[in-house]
Amino acid sequence: MPVRIIADSACDMASVDHPQLTVLPLTVAFGTTVYQDGVDLSHERFYELLIEGDELPSTGQVNPYAYTQAYEEAVAAGEDIVVIALSSKLSGTHQSAVTAAAQIDAPVRIVDTQSVTVGEHILVKYALQLVDRGLDAQQIADAVEASRDRVVVIGLLDTLEYLRRGGRISGAMGAVGEMLSIKPVVTVEDGEVHLMGKARGSKNGRNLLTKKIEEVGGADFSMPIELGYAGLDDKLLRKYIADSRALWEEYPGEELPVHSVGATIGTHVGPGAIALAFFKKA
């Protein structure tokens, strides 16, 4: 049977990216106005509102009803279902997928990516590659689960302002960090975001990213790789790619895949952040 991959908008992909992909939107609320991420709120418009606003927006999980609808459509089309979900430790979206699966009379294979944004993105891409190779739903779910521990996610934040505004660091720490031009370097481990280190200035921050990539042995370029940027342009990310070009010499494509990071992470890191995700060498 054909396989339908169902993901959520935290992966920063769209349903139009592949004929067997369905992406369900999380919600983003600015005050009393609620948007569907990637549907009636583009990434560009999100960052415009984020920069202009005095208060942080809130994000909401995909609800069980949205999953139930997607499951029923797939079943009606004669498709098997594999769900690739945002980390269960960061959102209730995974639980919504599980709850909805109990409401239909068909098998649903649900994979907790234990990741978000670029990390979730490359796992969805990998699943779609397996669809194109003709694997069945169980084989795809098993392969994605088996590979998720190889995923490395590293990000460099341009500012501490949005972590401060979101209450994730103290106001005093945020003020000192901004004064000293501290650039936090973060990663995703065991499904949660962790601070890897702090660098003085953007150049030192980019150097720390490169060091962390080298420490894990570099990327397996036979598997998907993805780079992301938060904000209205990708200038900082393009500079990082150029400055660290030795890391990408073995990449087989003409250009590294780059996309904008959406509201799920953008709300917390703010504009100017860059991130990359790859599979460690086996």
From TrEMBL:
The keyword Protein transport does not apply. Keywords: Lipid-binding. One of its GO terms (molecular function) is lipid binding. InterPro entries: DegV, DegV_C, DegV_domain_contain. It comes from the Bacteria. Gene3D superfamilies: 3.30.1180.10, 3.40.50.10170. Pfam families: DegV. PANTHER family: DEGV DOMAIN-CONTAINING PROTEIN DR_1986-RELATED, FATTY ACID-BINDING PROTEIN TM_1468. This is DegV family protein. It comes from Collinsella tanakaei YIT 12063. The lineage of its organism: Bacteria, Bacillati, Actinomycetota, Coriobacteriia, Coriobacteriales.
